[in-house]
Design brief:
Two copies of one chain form a homodimer. Helices cover 24% and strands 27% of the residues of chain A. With 584 residues, the first copy, chain A, is an alpha/beta fold. In chain A, helix 3 runs parallel beside helix 5. Chains A and B meet through strand 2, strand 3, helix 6 and helix 7 of A and strand 2, strand 3, helix 6 and helix 7 of B.
């Protein structure tokens, strides 16, 4: 067909093609496509009458390979894989490396299998990285625990292309046998081990890389980036909803090392996809910051394909998959057409190529298993009147651990509403009905006086995804938590003793079955009300709450088993009567 | 060990390390090595007291990864794999991709198996590319024929990393099923298909690349190089004994596409290794021509590893094989030390790490099967007195086909000695004792009058490696051919009716069991005598002869079945009585 002996499926004529191998733009090319594969990319003058069933004139617009997100947690969008794909496809994304770390913490291998099933045969090629650190600490009541044997059961799947970010770098450096076995299993199958090692440096970084970890997306500091490149790691430039590293990182990129960078979003909100875009918006920003356009495109296409060893992906070249994006220009990177496996799946505002979503398995749809919540289950005794308090820092996931005097009732329990600026936080086990509730006190979440009788609850709480609820009255908190449980998971806002807003996330308590617009809207309503209720500046009500139970980010956190001092890596009591720290 | 908890095997301190990922030089590094693997590469100041069994001070000399030859036919050195490795190791070569195309034409799978056995556990990691085109045309009396099923039997071997150069590009473009099956088999096993496509361009090039061919080493013209890069192919810059492309090709290399180039030698004479070096001398030449040193090193290390998908090779980085070269500088690239798998194998002029050579199998050692040569077997009738003659062009493998009047004896046979400037050429089948002899007439091989009673014979003759003998008397030719057969293969020079020099090549009739010095010396004697006997300028007596039977290079060639018109792709008679071409 390339030689014109038989008609190919499609000829794209007069395209300016981004050549990611030479990082340049080829003027006026004709691209021949058949069977979902690119056959040839030649000067249009050399192929004046292509023998093709369909001819499309690109009118000298720019043709790039489909874009790739090198690391994303689809769950963070609150969308199922199908709806996620619908959202990012018009942005020109045709491939993502998704780490289903969140659902794995809820539903283990079944959750990963659901993500595989739900992402099969979509116009966005969703490849999975096998979560490596489930649960994230040994002190967790997660829904599942995946050891090396468990991950080996699925690691050979053709759409599992990597071991997911090995966050437990202290464990790896300590020689954790199970974690090493996971890395070795991945390597034995020819799959890459992805990393996560903020601020790791020197011999420790090399020991980590030497174990087989081949990428990092947590580093933004140019010297640390160069260190990773030297150590043979790929560096992912992350521009997600929470963290944006591009501007700081770009000075570390040059034409000699540009082959070692990829782009990723990591965590991404549906609203941000709708308002800004996906990898295409990172390209636009990078080019505005001075990165040559063809280099930027290579970093979003060929580089991730090379990093993850994905054959036949990431280039407009013969033998490669016909995943193509037609851009108006290489400035704003707004796609006007997208082809996936040679089929046109985006044409202006028309999207096609989607099958019916797969049925979500019952166990995933009914993942909330909460023990009966007794009316007094949230009582928090502070007999000494002196408490350890989680102090939230604006615009940060790092909390402070402070000790302060608190007002208690006659029984010695925290009298939440009498304590200016404080609210109570509860983490309620929800995977196995264990009736395990950890309690703590938050400062800096809501302003004083507001949120009367109110509470916020979420079944998204990293990484174990138990129910986290914060509020100023036990009744409000109970109502919010029960509502989340009854919805099969989700988000809930209570005010004046009533549910004022909620978003159900019945897929493992993490994802909606609605589309991106609906989810973004629901979330916006919740956030707006929370803001009206006096949520502190620098706090995003639900996201902040979702990280209060993550016992690997300093300093003081709380999970189902109680208050956890991350720096000391142990549980500590709320009552601080024996603590000699000065009161704040 | 990277963290110093246990002693590693070796610490190289104060090394200036070439970082092939960032294509830069890292000053004053300490490299920790254990178990044949690099553990860490950190600033020496960060590791002031390495915990190592051995510490070696590099004194700020330059440490590079071991060098790789991306495409070489070891047989062309006339050395066995062991002796080849001994010759190139001091040049800093620790890896070659060797295509045993020559021995495969003699001994088929057994020959390839011998090359695998002979190259096992050497300090130079010899990986093989499976010969794809044996025999090179359907008109050959080769020693073997390898179809897709035959190559599949060995393709999965861990040291077979590629399908060898797919030279039969017309066959591939014509849709040759067996050839396509070979490429598909390689791809199914995750192995690369190497190419060979001089001057192929446009849609044909893309059709070729689209079949899965991922490299070419035959192209030197910058526009054709760029075309190959665009088509997703790697381009190998060849600097061998016969062909040197570097100077012409280098202008096509820039910092954006430098990741797509490798270096290779293809055909290399032992003498050239001894006098000039191997890949290291190409680096020196490239740097003198203006290529940045670290880029040159990357093209000889990381790039071939990426091209052939060789994990853990080609970089000085944690997790990579400890194949290392210490160079005095990055100008002359003279190695002072070489480590292979972490062991020092070259220290100044001391070479170590070699085991006893494997025994050559009997069938490979006795591969010459020549039928009894009757005294009149070389008689060449030219009844019309007008003959098609192979005209050798100086400095070229391309011959011309000319028609000229020749002097015959009373029986109408060519009277060789009476024809000024002509000699007779015979190609004698030697694989199966078929008693098949093809005859032709050469012009431009020897000057008139010289080589009285003389002849030159060789069992190296591409690609089928039958005996080729050229001479001015039938008796001399027969003596030379018989001598080659009796030696079990080799090269022979006859003068005045006597053997004056010979070099036996008993390994498949292609390789000596002697070392590089001995082979280079023997060859030099032969060539010197041939030159004294009047070998024409621009002709290398044995090499030129070795290509006279290669029926894929234009225009007129001769094999065991007779004279072959390459352009018409058919046999033609020597007698040109019916040819209307003007006499020359």
């Amino acid at each position: 067909m390339a030689l014109g002996r038989e008609a190919c499926d499609l000829a794209l004529i007069h395209a300016n093609v981004v050549d990611v191998f030479g990082r340049t733009v080829l003027q006026d090319r004709t691209v021949l496509v058949a069977g979902g594969q690119i056959l040839a990319v030649v000067p249009s003058a050399q192929c004046p009458k292509p023998n093709a069933k369909e001819i499309f004139d690109c009118q000298h617009r720019y043709l790039t390979p489909g874009l790739t997100d090198a690391h994303v947690h689809i769950e963070s969008t609150l969308l199922t894989p199908e709806n996620f794909a619908r959202a990012v496809l018009p942005c020109g994304t045709t491939c993502v490396i998704a780490d289903p770390h969140e659902i794995a913490n809820v539903a283990g291998i079944s959750g990963i299998q659901y993500m595989l099933d739900a992402s099969e045969n979509l116009p966005v090629h969703i490849l999975l990285a096998m979560p490596s650190c489930v649960p994230c600490t040994p002190f967790e009541d997660a829904g599942a625990s995946l050891d090396a044997d468990a991950i080996a059961s699925l690691m050979g799947h053709e759409r599992i292309c990597a071991l997911g970010e090995v966050m437990n770098y202290p464990g790896l450096l300590a020689g954790d046998d199970d974690l090493l076995a996971k890395v070795e299993k991945a390597e034995a199958l020819g799959k890459v081990a992805d990393g996560h090692c903020p601020s790791l440096s020197g011999l420790e970084l090399h020991a980590y890389a030497g174990c087989g970890i081949r990428a990092d997306h947590e580093t933004t500091e140019p010297d640390l980036i160069r260190e990773r490149i030297e150590a043979g790691m790929y560096v992912f430039i992350r521009e997600g909803s929470a963290a944006q590293g591009l501007e700081q990182m770009l000075p570390a990129v040059n034409s000699n090392n540009a082959g070692r960078f990829c782009f990723c979003t990591d965590d991404l909100h549906a609203e941000d996809i709708l308002s800004s875009g996906h990898i295409n918006s990172i390209l636009a920003k990078a080019v505005k910051l001075g990165l040559p356009a063809a280099t930027a495109v290579a970093m979003a296409t060929l580089n991730p394909a090379q990093c993850f060893g994905l054959a036949h992906r990431g280039a407009v070249a013969p033998g490669y998959k016909a995943d193509l994006v037609l851009m108006e220009d290489l400035v704003d990177f707004k796609p006007c057409m997208v082809w996936s496996d040679g089929a046109c799946v985006v044409n202006g505002s028309t999207i096609s190529g989607f099958r019916k979503p797969v049925a979500v398995p019952e166990e995933i749809l009914h993942s909330m298993h909460v023990a009966e919540l007794a009316p007094d289950c949230l009582k928090l005794p502070v007999p000494s009147g002196r408490a350890r308090v989680i102090k939230i820092n604006p615009f940060s996931l790092v909390t402070d651990s402070i000790v302060m005097d608190v007002i208690t009732d006659e029984e010695g329990n925290l009298a939440t509403r009498k304590n200016k600026d404080l609210c109570k936080i509860a983490v309620i086990e929800r995977h196995k009905g264990l009736n395990r509730i950890g309690l703590g006190i938050l400062k800096g979440y809501f302003y004083s006086g507001l949120l009367l009788g109110g509470a916020v609850a979420t079944s998204i709480s990293h990484d174990s995804h138990n129910i986290v609820v914060a509020g100023r009255t036990d009744e409000g908190m109970l109502l919010a938590a029960r509502t989340v449980a009854e919805m099969g998971g989700g988000l809930c806002m209570v005010r004046d003793g009533k549910v004022v807003s909620s978003l159900s996330l019945p897929v493992a308590g993490l994802m909606s079955q609605e589309g991106a617009e609906s989810v973004a809207k629901g979330l916006k309503v919740l956030e707006t009300i929370a803001r009206q209720c006096g949520c502190c500046e620098g706090v995003t009500p639900l996201t902040t709450l979702a990280f209060m139970a993550l016992c690997v980010i300093p300093s003081l956190k709380v999970n189902t088993r109680g208050l956890f001092d991350v720096n000391a890596f142990k549980f500590v009591p709320v009552d601080a009567g024996d603590d000699n720290t000065d009161c704040i």
